[in-house]
């Protein structure tokens, strides 16, 4: 009996295989939202402490104890954000996080505004994904139209008929060759070169 069978080193991790990529995207994005919310709350507390210090002239910050995390997003809003996160393709997860961080750094929001910035970053990504899907759909339609039209033009070019190089004599050719050109009956005079 080998020692490897006792320790089960050869078994693949079953937890990773059970995870759906969409669930991982939702979890990652919501973790980022929670972290940014905590950071905004921390910055807001620091600003309030600075304001209190300036107002009173005395620092009592060492006496105050704050809860670790006091602001929570409403359950309805959280569900809406999670639903928007499910629309994000895994390849866009990183760019969405970067855009969200950029918006947070740019606007320096209050705690209540962080979820709105997150929603706008998600909406930008969803719109971009939709535009790319529409462009791909249009390109596919264009390619199928071009394939059919190219096949028709190659067929037409192979079966080209030239009316001037015809070996078949028709009755109308014989009639047209034997008659004189008709004179014009319109009001304009006829201009001909004299032979």
Short description:
With 195 residues, this protein is an all-alpha fold. The chain has 7 helices and no strands.
What does this structure look like?
The chain is an all-alpha fold. The protein has a domain of 126 residues. 64% of the residues lie in helices and 0% in strands. The chain is built from seven helices and no strands. Helix 3 crosses helix 4, helix 3 runs parallel beside helix 5 and helix 5 crosses helix 6. The radius of gyration is 39 Å and the shape is elongated. The N and C termini lie far apart (116 Å). It comes from Eubucco bourcierii. This is RD3 protein. One of its GO terms (biological process) is retina development in camera-type eye.
**How many individual helices?**
7
Q: Encode the helix/strand succession as letters.
A: HHHHHHH
Mean pLDDT: 79
- Beta-strand segment tally: 0
**Shape verdict:** elongated
Give the class from helix and strand content and strand pairing: mainly alpha
Percent helix among the residues?
55-70%
Radius of gyration: 39 Å
Low-pLDDT sequence parts = none
For the termini, the CA-CA separation is 116 Å
Our estimate of the beta-strand percent is: under 5%
Major β-sheet annotation: none
Protein name: RD3 protein
Organism: Eubucco bourcierii (red-headed barbet)
Pfam families: RD3 (PF14473)
Defining key terms:
0% strand, 64% helix, 195 residues, mainly alpha, single chain
């Amino acid at each position: 009996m080998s020692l490897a069978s006792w320790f089960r080193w050869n078994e693949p991790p079953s937890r990773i295989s059970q995870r759906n990529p969409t669930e991982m995207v939702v979890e990652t994005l919501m973790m980022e939202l929670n972290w940014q919310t905590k950071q905004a709350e921390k910055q807001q507390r620091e600003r309030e402490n600075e304001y209190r210090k300036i107002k009173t002239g005395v620092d009592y910050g060492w006496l105050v104890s704050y809860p670790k995390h006091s602001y929570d997003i409403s359950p309805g809003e959280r569900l809406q954000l999670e639903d928007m996160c499910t629309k994000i393709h895994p390849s866009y997860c990183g760019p969405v996080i970067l855009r969200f961080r950029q918006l947070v750094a740019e606007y320096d929001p209050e705690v209540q505004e962080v979820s709105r910035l997150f929603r706008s970053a998600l909406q930008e990504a969803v719109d971009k994904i939709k535009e790319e899907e529409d462009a791909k759909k249009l390109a596919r339609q264009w390619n199928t139209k071009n394939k059919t039209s190219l096949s028709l033009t190659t067929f037409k070019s192979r079966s080209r008929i030239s009316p001037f190089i015809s070996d078949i004599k028709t009755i109308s050719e014989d009639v047209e060759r034997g008659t004189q050109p008709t004179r014009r009956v319109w009001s304009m005079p006829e201009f001909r070169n004299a032979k």
